[in-house]
Specification:
Length: about 100
């Protein structure tokens, strides 16, 4: 019984950061254009993670792109700038996105 309880607590602890970052994406209105696993206006976060897997400079570039906006990487629809998103939130969101599989 103790092992089962311990396993449940461990799974909850592992899921908590993912849920917190999904809430962070909701708070910053990211989910108006993106979803975790499907294209909306912009690419699915899982597709972003796949595209930048193994790219050591991806985190810094993606933080800058979210903050300043950009276009051309995922098609003709531009990513609008998001200067209202705090640097801490940007970093947490991008780190989370890059971990998705």
């Amino acid at each position: 019984m103790k092992k089962l309880l311990l396993a449940a607590v461990a799974c909850g602890a592992l899921a908590a950061p993912a849920f917190a970052n999904l809430q962070l994406a909701q708070k910053n209105n990211c989910l108006a254009c993106h979803a975790v696993d499907k294209k909306v206006v912009g690419p699915a976060y899982k597709d972003v993670a796949k595209k930048y897997a193994g790219d050591k400079g991806a985190e810094a570039r993606l933080i800058a792109k979210v903050k300043n906006g950009g276009s051309g990487v995922w098609g003709a629809v531009p990513m609008p700038p998001n200067p209202q998103v705090s640097d801490a939130d940007l970093k947490a969101l991008v780190k989370w996105i890059l971990t998705l599989k």
